Amino acid sequence: MTVEDFKATGKVSPWDVMPISVSVLVESSDGSRTNKRSDEEPDMGVVITGSYDGNKRMLLGHGPSGAEIRTAAPVDNNGDGSSFSPTDLVAGALGACMTTIMAIMAERDGIDLSGMHFKVEKEMSSAPRRIAKLILEIHLPSRLSDEVRGKLERGARTCPVHHSLFPEIESEPTFFYDID
Asked: Which helix (H) or strand (E) holds 177?
């Protein structure tokens, strides 16, 4: 899907609220790497691999960086809970995505978000087993003006993870301006 196709859906994308240009290193499926500017047509593909380690554990590999993450089935689903479960990663991805977008906007505008952090609580349903609710708290500096707060909150809501969740999953963030 092109940016134009996405915009035709009427959804707000990060490109609509963040007119910035950065250069990123993109790895192709053949292993070659090229620099791509963010104001060019975005390459929406990233390869992530997974290999089974036994005992309901997976090792995930991030193609572009080579970083690895381990997952484990949770105790309430016949696992040992020794690491993030796949649904824990979804919960963490929501908080990380929203705060990363806010950080990108703040950096662009010269706003200091030192101390910003989030907490997300994941609630599961059993029939069917799925994420039912993500209770997300984002904590930000108290000194931010109302104008900046509104801008950052609107930006956070453009998070691709947020827009990828089923509408049945409650995931509206709450913002706290309590960092001195």
From this structure: strand 174-179
